[in-house]
Each structure stands twice: as structure tokens, then as C-alpha cells.
Write a structure and sequence with these properties.
heterodimer; A: mainly alpha; MetI-like fold; 2 domains; about 0% strand; globular; B: alpha+beta; D-Maltodextrin-Binding Protein, domain 2; seven-stranded mixed beta sheet; three-stranded antiparallel beta sheet; 18 helices; about 40% helix; lipoprotein (chain B)
Chain lengths: ~300, ~425
């Protein structure tokens, strides 16, 4: 559910002409933006598009990840994937994370709305909610391993309120995915929260003032001002939530490495590549995942087209 | 105008250099003019814990003998994963440990031959393990015997002073510990995973020196009577008997050392290399190093115990090294002059060296040490290929974690169905690989 922020090249302001200078030559004006773009474009090509192109190429080979020779096998890897239904069974695990992501969006929207009004200690609460996102994923995984162990932090907390008969949070296969999805919500809530908060604060103050004069309640302000104003961000977050749920990796990989029924499609792909030395097949799996995510995003955009906010 | 173009050129150059730097190699000239060794060699190691201490001391001693050579270490935490990927470049140090993912027929692609098997086996043990076509590509840094580490105090409390001689007696003994003491009888170390793979090192204990080629000739290694069934079956029985930790999914390796050392855990199946680490942990936690012992696995052939002895990671020289002579000198020095094997509680790779203290009980029991023989020519990669094709990671932790899950009732199936599935996958893959 991570977001990469696109690098935006700011247009350069044309130099002011003094009375004596000659008019600037056309060419220099058209070259300058490209100069600024060389570095970001270079990085984008080298670290994003080139690896993807390589991956697509590998997916048509039987490469084991080491051999100097990469033998082409045509569509064999793709045929393998679609004749092995057990490879897709792991997508059921993604449903837990999808539900988790929806809960996460609702919570983030709720907190962002509340904290955009003048609440006491609002900056403190903003920090508390955003903080987990700043933590390193590996550290979170290890902390939560202790949190979920028998007689660990969670059991101790529940013990204080009188709940003694607690399950094995990670050891019980019917609970492990809830625990992991919960960890994921805790971690990424802050990101959605900050996105929503930023969007809400971009709504001009005078709209609220007008609403106050008309005697609008907080709920009415949310329903008729805030929500329409941040619709686009909500739509974007939904797309990210779905693609994130399909490609969950970090938290289950660190905490259970996919054992005990918590395996996700990406963990399975990594295992295929590096555990069974089938880089060709794994690349094909990655390509299939990419296509699935693209298709779902396309469908989503068809049903929720991003309209321009017509608030102002 | 001209200035702008210069900037453009500079930007592109800087970018190219930044990227190019990734693949530039270190090291200067090879051998010196007067026959003395010179140059800088980079040594890749998995030992992040001793790279700045023990290894640095070795480097200083070596450099005192070979003033022209500079030894630099690069410690890698995820050694196996990182180095496997780096082998795709030409920059993987001068001396390195051969990652397990390299299959035998790929050895000549990446490493310098160190000598023939016939020649080197006079001097070193375990040379077969990374050899191909009669040439040796890597020599073990130390050897390990298989068995299980025990806290004898816990076992004595349960009334057991002798190593059990049958798998049934082993499980029974663990049950006794569970009943008579507060200790967890057996600790799987499920979360870290790799301790589960240690079980595979027992191959040969039952089937003898040809264990691997016997396995690759079978369609059903997990059928009763075969070695793989005995090894994985014992793990299954131990977990199914309920004598392991309550929640295997939250275990911790570092903590397990202290647990065993302080008598909160009774036993763990590991290599003999683990003994010094457990003893240190016991002492650090206020226990006694004398409580830690190393016992042979509970399988006997004609009244004697057996233990498979194999080499740890093998030292090899990169094919792309620019200082091969200096690299070779370091390998020879490390194996013969350094005290690495002894300090690690391992068996020295040098033929005829004395046995380490950690194996004192083995000597007293007269344990028969088994060194696996190499796979027959043309079959070197079969075992690896079949297990990859079948997606049964004999040397990984994935299927054994599933086995533990089935055994503790957290996943569907039972011993029979789980092993039947393994057998059918193995047989199908074997048909593909062997033909």
C-alpha cells in the first residue's frame, strides 16, 4: 500500500527582459525543461522500466536466477500458471487485507475530519496517528511478533480487563490473517490519514465560514463540503487499497514468512524465484499480478471516474 | 548556450558514473615481480558477528606473513540471498563462500578450480561436497556432526541419563520431560525457519553414505522404511506428541539459546557447531556450560549410533578475481593456520586434525561418523533439480513448517496424507528430471 510520489518538474519562469538585451533564442527555451528532466527520467527508466522489461523477458525463459544461459520457453510459464489453480488460492488471503484496507480508509477519514476541526491536542494526535508509518517495516514486524506471542503484550493488556482465555494470535490458522491485517492497518493508517488531512485543509476557509453562517452541523459540513472536496483523493486511496491488498508482502513475510496459511501471492512469487530457483516462472507470476492490478484499476476507474471537484 | 550543454553533458556523465560505480571492481595488480604476493583481496563472509574481531585478527596475522597483500572483509547478513544475486555480476569478491543455490554443474561458471578431488582429498575432508567433474571448487571452513543439543540437567530431572536409542524412546523421553519438569521438552525454532532445515543434514544417518543417490532413485522417499520418512516422521511425531513449544509461530532463535542454557528447553536438533554458542548463552544467563551436551540422533545400526558429518559453507575463489594467487594464499592460510574451525566448535577440515571438545560424548559412545559420498557422474544435479521441480525445499523451511502445522493440528491432513502428497510431487518431478 505504499505510494510513490511522482516527481513534478516545475516550469521555469522566463527571465525578465531588460530594455537593452536581445530577445532570447528559441532553442534555449525548449532545451531547459529537458535538462531538468534528465535525472528523474533517467532514474525512472533505469530503476523502473528497465527492470520491468527484463522481468517480462525472464518470464519467457526457464532461467534459474544464476545460469549464464537463459533458455527461451515461449508461453510455457504462463501455461503452467493457469493450469495450477493452487497458485491462485492464495488470493483468498488478500480478502482479509482488502477488508482491513476499507476499515483503514474509514478510520483515516474519520480521524482526518475530526482533527481538521479545532480539537484539543490536535497536533499531538496527528503525530500519534502518523508515527507508525515512519517506522521501518522490519522493526514493526518484530515488535508485533512480541505483541502477539502467548503471554505477550496483547495478552497482558487483555488480562487487565479480565479476558484470560485468549487464542494464539499467530499460531491459530483461523486468526493469523486477522492479526496480520490488523498490523497492516496500524501501519498504513497514518499515510491515508495524512493524504485526507492535506486534502481537507486545502478547502478554503470561507466555505466553512459560509456554512457556519447558515448554521450547518459538523455532519452536514462533512457530507456537503469535506467529502465532495476530497472525493478524488478517496478514489485514489481506494485504487491503492485494492492493489495493495493484492500485493501484500512485507508484514506477513517478516512475521510468518507465509507459514500457517498466511501466504500471499507475492510471497509465493518470491519463494518460487528464490526458494525453488524458478525465476522464469516467478517472473511470469509477477507479470500476471501486474496485469490483474491494471485490469482492476481500469474497472474501478470506469465505475468511479475522477470528476473534478466542483466545490469552488 | 555552451555552458548549458556542458551542464547537460556533466549531468549525464555523473549519472553514468554513479551507475557504473556499481560494477567497477576493486584490486590492483596480481602477483608481484619478485614472486611475493601483492594486491588487495575482498573476502565475503556470512559472519557479521565476528567480522570486526576474530576475522580482523586473522587478517592481521596473514598480512604480517604476506606484507604485500591487503585483506578486506565484506560481511553480508542475508548471505545466501544477496550473494546468489550478486553472482550474476562479475563483482562478488575474490574469496567467498559458495551459496547453496549454485548447482554443481554451475560451479565452473563462477569459481576457480582449486585442484582435483584425488589430490585435495589427501589434505582436506568434505572436498566432494562442492566438486564437479573431478575438480574441487570449494573447501569447507569447518565440518559439523549432526545430533541434538540437550540440557542434561533437564534430562536428568526426568530420569534420563543416556541418549535414547530408538525414535520411540526419543519421543517417550521428551514426554517424560514434559511430565516431570517445567521445561518445554523440544523447541522447533519454527519462526526463524532455518533450524528446521538442520533436520535434513541427518541424511545418511540411516541410509549410509549413498543417501542422496538412494533418494534420487526413489519415487517415494516419504514411504515407511525410507530415510526421508524416518527423518521427517520423527519431527512429525515429536510435534504431534505435543512436547514442543505452545506457539511455534512466535519463536526466536537468539532467545532459544538462553532457554536451553537455563533449562527452560530440553533439546533442539542442530549441528555440533551450536554447542559453543549454547554454552556461552548458558553461562551468560547464569547457568553452567557443563549442562550442555551433544547427543547422537536416536537411530542405531547394529547397536551403534551414527552421525552424518558434513562441511559448512565452502571457501571458493571467484573466477573473475584479479588476485587469484593472493586469494589462494588466503584460502590455504585460513584452512591450515587459522584456528577458525576449533574456535567454532567445528571439526577441522584438515585431514588428521584432532576432534573438537563438543564431540566428547560422541567419542565416549563410539558414534560412527558418516561422510556422504558424491553423486555418480551425470547425476550431480538430480537431487537439487528434483526438489526444485517438485517445490519441496529439502534445504529450506517451507515444507517442514507445513509439516509442523499439520502435526500440531493447525492445518488439514495427517501424517499419511501429508507424506503421500510429498511422494506424488516427488515422483512427478523425478519423472521430469530423470526421464
Amino acid at each position: 500500500m505504499a505510494v510513490t510520489s511522482p516527481t513534478v518538474a516545475t516550469p521555469t519562469e522566463p527571465r525578465k527582459r531588460s530594455a537593452t538585451s536581445r530577445p532570447p533564442r528559441q532553442r534555449s527555451g525548449s532545451l531547459t525543461p529537458w535538462l531538468f528532466l534528465v535525472v528523474p527520467l533517467g532514474l525512472l527508466l533505469v530503476f523502473t522500466y528497465l527492470p520491468v522489461a527484463n522481468m517480462v523477458w525472464y518470464s519467457f525463459t526457464s532461467w534459474d536466477g544464476l545460469d549464464a544461459v537463459k533458455e527461451g520457453v515461449g508461453f510455457k510459464n504462463y501455461v503452467d500458471i493457469f493450469t495450477r489453480p493452487e497458485l491462485f488460492r492464495v488470493f483468498f488471503v488478500s480478502l482479509y487485507y482488502l477488508v482491513g484496507a476499507l476499515v483503514q480508509l474509514a478510520l483515516a477519514l474519520y480521524f482526518a475530519t475530526i482533527l481538521s476541526f479545532s480539537t484539543r491536542f490536535r497536533n499531538f494526535f496527528k503525530g500519534v496517528i502518523f508515527f507508525p508509518y515512519l517506522l521501518n517495516g522490519v522493526a514493526i514486524g518484530l515488535v508485533f511478533l512480541y505483541f502477539f506471542r502467548p503471554d505477550g503484550t496483547l495478552d497482558a493488556l487483555l488480562g487487565v480487563v479480565g479476558l484470560k482465555d485468549t487464542p494464539l494470535w499467530l499460531g491459530d490458522p483461523s486468526i493469523v490473517n486477522y492479526s496480520l491485517a490488523g498490523t497492516s492497518v496500524w501501519r498504513y493508517l497514518g499515510l491515508n490519514f495524512v493524504l485526507f488531512l492535506g486534502a481537507i485543509q486545502a478547502i478554503p476557509d470561507d466555505v466553512y465560514e459560509a456554512a457556519d453562517l447558515d448554521g450547518a452541523t459538523s455532519w452536514q459540513k462533512f457530507r456537503y463540503i469535506i467529502f465532495p472536496g476530497i472525493k478524488q483523493i478517496v478514489g485514489l486511496s481506494l485504487i491503492l487499497a485494492v492493489s495493495g491488498a493484492l500485493s501484500v508482502f512485507e508484514i506477513p513475510f517478516i512475521m510468518t514468512s507465509g507459514a500457517n496459511g498466511s501466504e500471499t501471492f507475492v510471497i509465493q512469487t518470491v519463494d518460487t524465484a528464490f526458494r525453488y530457483s524458478k525465476v522464469g516462472l516467478a517472473s511470469a507470476m509477477a507479470v500476471v499480478l501486474l496485469i490483474i492490478v491494471l485490469v482492476i484499476s481500469a474497472i474501478q476507474r470506469k465505475f468511479f471516474p475522477d470528476e473534478k471537484g466542483d466545490l469552488v | 548556450m555552451a555552458r548549458k550543454q556542458t551542464v547537460a553533458v556533466l549531468t549525464v556523465t555523473a549519472l553514468t558514473m554513479a551507475l557504473g560505480a556499481c560494477s567497477s571492481s576493486s584490486g590492483e595488480s596480481g602477483g608481484g615481480e619478485d614472486g611475493e604476493l601483492s594486491g588487495t583481496i575482498t573476502v565475503l563472509t556470512n559472519r557479521t558477528d565476528i567480522v570486526d574481531t576474530t576475522l580482523q585478527d586473522y587478517a592481521e596475522l596473514f598480512q604480517a606473513e604476506n606484507p604485500g597483500v591487503t585483506v578486506e572483509f565484506e560481511a553480508i547478513t542475508d548471505y545466501e540471498g544477496d550473494v546468489s544475486i550478486r553472482l550474476n555480476t562479475q563483482d562478488y569478491g575474490d574469496v567467498l563462500l559458495i551459496p547453496n543455490s549454485v548447482s554443481k554443474d554451475q560451479l565452473p561458471q563462477f569459481f576457480e578450480p582449486l585442484g582435483t578431488v584425488d589430490e585435495l582429498s589427501q589434505e582436506y575432508r568434505f572436498v566432494n561436497e562442492q566438486a564437479y567433474d573431478g575438480d574441487v571448487y570449494g573447501i569447507a571452513t569447518f565440518g559439523t556432526a549432526m545430533g541434538y543439543v540437550v540440557n542434561t540437567k533437564v534430562w536428568e530431572q526426568a530420569g534420563i541419563t543416556e541418549p535414547p536409542t530408538t525414535p520411540e524412546a526419543f519421543v517417550e523421553a521428551l514426554k517424560q520431560i514434559g511430565e516431570k519438569t517445567d521445561a518445554v521438552p523440544y523447541y522447533t525454532n519454527y519462526t526463524d525457519g532455518w533450524p528446521l532445515t538442520q533436520w535434513q543434514n541427518n541424511q545418511g544417518t540411516i541410509a549410509g553414505t549413498d543417501a542422496v543417490s538412494i533418494r534420487t532413485s526413489q519415487d517415494d522417499p516419504w514411504a515407511e522404511g525410507n530415510e526421508q520418512y524416518a527423518i521427517d516422521g520423527l519431527l512429525y511425531d515429536v510435534v504431534a506428541a505435543g512436547v514442543t513449544e505452545e506457539d511455534p509461530t512466535t519463536t526466536n532463535w537468539e532467545e532459544s539459546k538462553t532457554l536451553l542454557g537455563t533449562g527452560k528447553v530440553g533439546a533442539m536438533v542442530l549441528g555440533s557447531w551450536a554447542v559453543p554458542q549454547m554454552q556461552d548463552a548458558a553461562e551468560a544467563a547464569g547457568g553452567s556450560a557443563d549442562d550442555i551436551d551433544f547427543w547422537p540422533m536416536p537411530w542405531q545400526t547394529e547397536g551403534t549410533f551414527s552421525s552424518t558429518v558434513s562441511g559448512d559453507y565452502k571457501l571458493a575463489i571467484s573466477k573473475h578475481s584479479e588476485n587469484k594467487e593472493a586469494a589462494r594464499a588466503w584460502v590455504d592460510w585460513f584452512l591450515n593456520e587459522s584456528t577458525f574451525a576449533a574456535e567454532q566448535g567445528g571439526i577441522s577440515p584438515v585431514v588428521g586434525a584432532p576432534a573438537p571438545d563438543s564431540l566428547a560424548t560422541f567419542d565416549a559412545l563410539g558414534v560412527n561418523q558418516i561422510e556422504l559420498s558424491p553423486a555418480p557422474a551425470g547425476e550431480e544435479t538430480w537431487d537439487n533439480d528434483i526438489s526444485n521441480e517438485a517445490e519441496i525445499d529439502l534445504w529450506g523451511d517451507k515444507y517442514r513448517k507445513q509439516l509442523v502445522d499439520v502435526a500440531r493440528g493447525a492445518a488439514d491432513g495427517d501424517k499419511e496424507s501429508f507424506f503421500a502428497d510429498l511422494n506424488s510431487r516427488w515422483a512427478a518431478a523425478r519423472a521430469n528430471v530423470v526421464g
